[in-house]
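Hi R.,

As promised, here are both runs. First protein below:
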Amino acid sequence: MAVQTVAATFASLMLRLMFGGSHEPVPVTLPSGSNIQSLVLEFIITFYLMFVIMAVATDHRAIGQMAGLAVGGTIMLNALFAGPVSGASMNPARSIGPALVGSKYRSLWVYIFGPFAGAAAGARAYGLLRHTDKSLGDITKMLSGATN
């Protein structure tokens, strides 16, 4: 998490320097609706994203070649539907970096709490729905091709 936040901050700083100087507007993620609307949307879209990631990355029944398409398609749909209201951040680091560079912290809590809670709920929901008699360690060994 720390590396993502540092990278997002550095990228925001570089973009600011490349496109306008120290006091130009920074593209900070801000809700166009209310904070509660954006919080709920961030929770839902991050829930879906984490659910899809868990499905294609951890389940041995998923087709590996389609993982990128599934995750990318989910991000695209999330951005289409939630972007106009919440900005479709789906990642706290993606919102914290520009906020630090632009010194604009209004509604930042929405983009920290919503994705954290949505990702945790999505991973838990997939874990509850995925039925297998094998442990995660066994699945990981099977995916990597390792044998005992």
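And here is the second one, sequence first, then its structure tokens:
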Amino acid sequence: MRAVEKRGKALVTGASSGIGATYADRLAQRGHDLVLVARDKKRLSDLAAKLSAQYGVTVDVLKADLTLRDDVRLVEKRLREDEAIELLVNNAGIGPKGPLLTDDLDYLEAMIELNVVAVNRLAIAAAQTFAMRGKGAIINIASVVALVPERFNGTYNASKAFVLNLTQSINVEAADKGVRVQAVLPGLTRTEIFDRAGGSIDRLDPSMVMDVTDLVDAALAGFDQGELVTIPSLPDAADWHAFTKARMVLSPNLSHDRPAARYGVEQTAAAV
């Protein structure tokens, strides 16, 4: 067992495999006690036993299906009532089965429940709770497709754009209350999500697929550096800053009392 300095407790959703399980390992290595959340209790229990033995941390298991709103509320209750929790890793999510026009609507609605509704509720519950305590952090796992909606399934893209926007907005309200937030935007990552969606990661260009441990290590490095948005594949952070600056240039002209002259629309006469 490796001796580590104790830190606050972290709650990780989607922790039974992939990105979530890797976050659990890395956070345990850093000395965080853990609450692991997912549907598969056996996998969670096996991971909990391994991490506890390897790092000497306390690991609790909370079985929950976050497509079910009652289960989301159970996790929310734990977030609000366990005063030792100082970090939420909002990771649970699913990907599409195929193109939007051939995907199943019920599956897409389940995706929204998990990728949007559950993420939203847990992130806000954590932000409210941490703000009252004056400390805490939230890591929301989004995706690079939030920035390139033309390249992937529309519902999935939109769900990840929601996560990015939510994170940026929470930061505006909560940063001065001791709450840190980070949106992580992975590209293609070697996890089970492709198999679960009926595809195979082996069909993809390997030069575009990042190993999950590299992804999480880079994301945590970005967190340590205080990044609000972390894109592990992006070579030059200046590109993201330029994108943000270009977006903000639009801000003064997004709402006026009349249409832009380029539309040739005459101003409506003011009501008498």
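A quick note on the second one: The longest strand covers residues 7-13. Let me know what you think.

Best,
J.
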